[in-house]
């Protein structure tokens, strides 16, 4: 993990709508992963899209565990 490729985003849980800080590792490129809500502990699906040319965050989608992202 490279510190210069870490990006912090404030997001809202798709279950309880609690805002929380999410630390994204952009060095992994585009990927799908899971994060538990710090408030309600529900599993949140994350689709992280990273630009292959710039290495910057292109898009971030959050969904419930049964959503298709």
UniProtKB/TrEMBL annotation:
InterPro entries: zinc_ribbon_bacterial. This is Putative paraquat-inducible protein A. It comes from Halomonas fontilapidosi. The lineage of its organism: Bacteria, Pseudomonadati, Pseudomonadota, Gammaproteobacteria, Oceanospirillales.
